[in-house]
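As the next step, I selected for study a record pairing a protein sequence with its backbone structure tokens, which the following lines show:
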Amino acid sequence: MNARAVAAWTAACLVIVLATSNPAYKILVLVAALSALATGAGWRKTRRVVAGVAVIAGFAVLLNFVSAHLGTTVLFTVPPDIPGIGGPYTVEALAFGATGGVTIAAAVIAAAPVSLVLKAHDVMDALPASLARTGTAIAASLNLVPAVATSFVEVTEAQRLRGWRPRGPRSWAEVVIPVVLTSVEGSIQLAESMEARAFGSGGRVTMSPPTLARRDWLVISTSAIATLGFVASMAAGWVADWGAYPTISAPAVDVRPLVACLFLFVPVVAWRSRA
């Protein structure tokens, strides 16, 4: 799949999920992003992202629930004499925190295909020639985290074969230091390889210029329709704002922005067809 199509779809998801406070549309974007990621990257990779996002979103929900003592529907009360956590704990604070968690989850999962579905050189080749060096930096950074993770696993297994066992925070230095040194050595090798290939001495070249297939144009066009349709719905007042305070209420949903959000499910069909 083409990196420009993935970027257009990711941008559409981010615009919609960040533009509104209505949780109904945010949840729809989250479902679309999760479905598209599972289709394009496979469930094995997707579940790792989901696990990490669940931890981050859960922390956001808990943080708002503990810190925001607002709302009328009180679940329980902690004595106000206890600093930091004292006060009433309300359904409204929990609901508002859940909305923030959905926003974070939808944004992260919508951006995940850039690193899980695409290869680093695909992202670099999708950038214009004027951003060639920026693309190289992006490609190197996308490879950094998987390389460090692989190095960590390899060093940990090698140290265990030598009899190493984790005995506390200090013992992990025997793993972290070799991983850091390996990463530095890999960075030096990358720099030497780029210099040997005359990086920066001329324009960027590519063996096969990226082309947009019909399914890529389909994803780009439907992403544009989703963005423009939702923005137009907001301008027309069809997207109702939602607030949890002072009393929680069900979010109002209009069919017109809802239809705009449904266009975000197109990659589920396009990327599955490609597979």
